[in-house]
Amino acid sequence: MRNFIFLAVLGFWMISCGTSDQNTKEETDRVPELTLVDSMQIDRLVVPTLLDYSEDGKHFLFFDFQSNELILTDPLGKVLISTNRSEDGPNSYKSGYFSACRFVNGNQILVDTYAGSFLYDFAFNLIDSKPAKIQTISQMLGDTPGFVVDENYQFKFGYLESDLDQIRVDDQLKMDEYDFLKVSNADGEVKFSSQVPRSVNYIQKPGQYMGYDPIAKIKNDRIYLQFMLTPAIYTYSFPELELLDSINLDPGENFRPTEPAPEQENFGIFFEDLKGSRYENFIFSNDYLLTWYLKGAPDEEVDALDRRVVGDEKYQAVEKKYKTPVYQIYKEKEKIWEGEWPIKLNVKKDLLYSVNAKPGEDPNSVERDVQTFYFYELR
């Protein structure tokens, strides 16, 4: 990751829409600034997805969803190697997709698929493979947020293949009894497990939803879980998975609870997801917690769409218009600000970043031969 000649401090205060002048003055005295601290450029024609970075910060792992290439770079963004390991061959992970790729053991890369776990060196030579003992549950193929690792353990949101008959009733997942939170060793042997908290939305209102897995982050001897449809962050001991605490995120009026899909509709989960809000990610930055959720679209506009298709032009137009982020900042458990910024942020572990645009810029304004990642902190 390269420090450019300047270190830019973004000159705007984060001010919530609709706040009175007096309250705004009081709030902004306590609200940190979003500060640009670093950037890197990758020589690719399309934006690759950041999958992980090594603990020593010397390697970054990306994936190009157009070419199916795994990309290993140095901290400057220089491509060290790129390769397609989804195709047939002795080094293939034998699948058209993966659920997650993570750095492990200091100098190896783990690719997790439905078929198994595949261990590579930094030249993407296959070192070892074994069947998956814990099957991951996620709607987000390619970078599942509910699979994280540390030097000794792996956390997955999933189930043992032998337990499949315990988690399904009438072809629906039964989320309220089984231990979907699982910590294993590197061999996939379960060491600790726990149930989903009772306050999670799909426990309170059972049914079919777009996603069930949480966003997970390991920090010291804690693991933090954010179930994307529930406005809370849960704190567990790690690796023991004992529930210790939770933070009520207390979103404003822009947050619309997501309802379960009508049973008779094949694509109902997509339209309910379009109506409702979901949390996208969170990060601890210095002494602050930053998180954000997407707004929901009005019922009448979603109900006017053709329920037989998903993703057509009208669907995408509603999605683009309404599914925009609302950011929240917390100091300990106190929310000190909530509002909208002119930027789309992303998170990978302890990195907060945007791609090809700083605040107020359009990432699609020009065609690019290189892709720029901008990194931020709250200060």
Summarize the structure.
The protein is mainly beta. It has 6 helices and 27 strands.
What can you tell me about this protein's structure?
The chain has 379 residues and is mainly β. It is 10% helix and 38% strand. Strands 10, 11, 12, 15 and 16 form a five-stranded antiparallel β-sheet that branches. Strands 1-27-26-25 form a four-stranded antiparallel β-sheet, with no helix packed on it. A four-stranded antiparallel β-sheet has the order 2-3-4-5, with no helix packed on it. The radius of gyration is 21 Å and the shape is globular. 31% of the residues are buried.
Task: Write down the Rg.
Answer: 21 Å
How many beta strands in the DSSP annotation? 27
Gap between N and C termini, in Å? 20 Å
* Number of distinct helices: 6
Q: Per the principal axes of the C-alpha atoms, what is the gross shape?
A: globular
Poorly predicted regions are 2-22
Helicity range of the residues?
A: 10-25%
How much beta, percentage-wise? 35-45%
Average per-residue pLDDT, rounded, comes to 91
Major sheet description: 5 strands, antiparallel
Structural class computed from helices and strand pairing: mainly beta
Protein name: 6-bladed beta-propeller protein
Organism: Algoriphagus hitonicola
